[in-house]
Amino acid sequence: MDRIFFIVAMLTLQLSAQIQNGLYYSNDIYTSDVNNYETYNTEKIDAKQYINITDNGIRIYSPNGIGVYHAWINIGMFDKHYTYVLSNGSKVCYGPEIKGIYYFYDSEYDPVEYKKVIEFRNMKTVIRSNNYLMNIR
Question: Rounded to an integer, what distance in angstroms lies between the CA atom of residue 121 and that of residue 76?
Fold first, then answer.
């Protein structure tokens, strides 16, 4: 009985560590270069971003309100973060410490080590309406 309770507790904690489906908004965005998992040249981006998350992928909207949808594969925990690999070769990690996500990209020479990261901090849920795409612009 204790073993079943332990498994249920672990699955519950794992699910709460994942980002939930929905439309999110962030205006607290930073970009950095990455070398050996250390960030440098961090700069705040003066912009706002909408991000749509589903069970099967993510869409980071461009300023014109369109964006590109990328399917993802859940690869589990990576460096204490719940991690997904996108269809374009990038990687997304859920970062509860920043209340948002890390978007790693540019793995030109090494498919494991990424050279750049965008941090979408303090993401807020957007309440959807029937025409929420029109409201994004």
Answer: 21
Using CA atoms, how far apart are residues 57 and 68, in angstroms rounded to an integer?
10
pLDDT tens for 66-83 read 888 999 999 888 778 889
Pairing label, strands 28-35, 116-121: antiparallel
Helix, strand or coil, per DSSP, at residue 47: coil
pLDDT digits (tens, 9 = 90+) for 103-137: 999 887 666 788 899 999 999 988 765 555 545 44
Mean per-residue pLDDT of the chain: 80
Q: How many CA atoms lie within 13 A of 68 on its CB side?
A: 6
Q: Residue 25 burial by CB count (10 A; 0-12/13-18/19+): exposed, middle or buried?
A: middle
d(CA 17, CA 99): 11
- In sequence order, which residues have a C-beta less than 8 Å from that of residue 107 and are 6 or more positions away? 89, 90, 113, 114, 115
- % of the chain with per-residue pLDDT over 70: 77
**How buried is residue 33: exposed, middle or buried, by Cβ count under 10 Å (0-12/13-18/19+)?**
middle
